[in-house]
Design goal:
About 65% of the residues lie in helices and about 5% in strands. By secondary structure, the chain is mostly helical.
């Protein structure tokens, strides 16, 4: 019996689609593409150096991530930000993250404890930016901040819980990015945030779930309050073209 050649799919376009998806997603979360901004294929193709097909694939995935919206008459646009979305996002993030933290405190071992301490140390050693234009500093701080919060819940033993906590954290980063300079310019606020990080870490390692989750919830709520106080300053209020979202 003769062997028939096996057809091998061309993965080049798929790989390119995944790559551009990751780049677009990173830029959306970082705020480099503004809320409500129209995403035109020709412009994106020029900026990212790719063709229409991988862009279309990437944008379709980003619609599923709720970072991009598609409307028949407008095409693709960056998902808007709003206070109502912020409150909903924070409430769900708090609920799931506190659940994951409790589970991690129950299941975590010495390696989990060591990772928390290492992530906290790296975060505390990271300078905060003096301007939102300091993209590399902002990116590094966000990376280490995410690592610290992930380390707290990493032992929850639930891939789905980790997935949803990560998605909610990414969405909240869109809001936090706009006020990170406010945090760094206020010594009182900066001290409060750092004290909360350290308290959460110490309580988690001490297996004090009630204390750890209470301070985590307070920490999240504090971030929301900072965003709300600076709502207009960081241009989170929506343009006239997105008026429905402002209500």
């Amino acid at each position: 019996m003769s062997l028939q050649p096996v057809a091998v799919a061309d993965d080049e376009s798929t790989t390119l689609g995944i790559e551009i998806y990751a780049r677009l997603r990173r830029d959306l979360i970082a705020g480099h593409l503004k809320p409500g901004e129209r995403l035109r294929f020709r412009q994106l193709s020029s900026i990212y150096g790719v063709g229409i097909a991988p862009l279309r694939e990437a944008l379709s995935r980003l619609v599923s991530d709720q970072l991009v919206r598609f409307e028949g008459h407008r095409g693709y646009t960056v998902a808007p930000l709003s206070l109502s979305d912020l409150h909903d996002l924070c409430a769900l993030r708090t609920e799931l993250s506190c659940n994951a933290l409790r589970r991690s405190i129950t299941r975590g071992d010495e390696d989990w404890e060591a990772e928390i301490l290492a992530a906290l140390h790296r975060l505390e050693r990271t300078p905060l930016p003096h301007s939102v234009e300091d993209r590399k500093i902002v990116d590094e701080w966000e990376l280490r901040h995410d690592r610290f919060h992930y380390s707290l819940i990493a032992a929850c033993d639930s891939p789905w819980l980790l997935h949803f906590c990560g998605a909610l954290s990414d969405h909240f980063q869109r809001y936090r990015r706009g006020v990170i300079v406010v945090t760094s310019s206020s010594q009182e606020l900066l001290k409060r945030v750092r004290d909360q990080h350290r308290t959460i870490a110490e309580a988690a390692i001490a297996r004090d779930a009630d204390r750890a989750t209470a301070v985590l919830a307070e920490h999240f709520q504090g971030s929301v309050e900072v965003v709300i106080r600076n709502y207009e300053e960081v241009s989170l209020s929506l343009s006239a073209g997105n008026g429905d979202e402002a209500n």
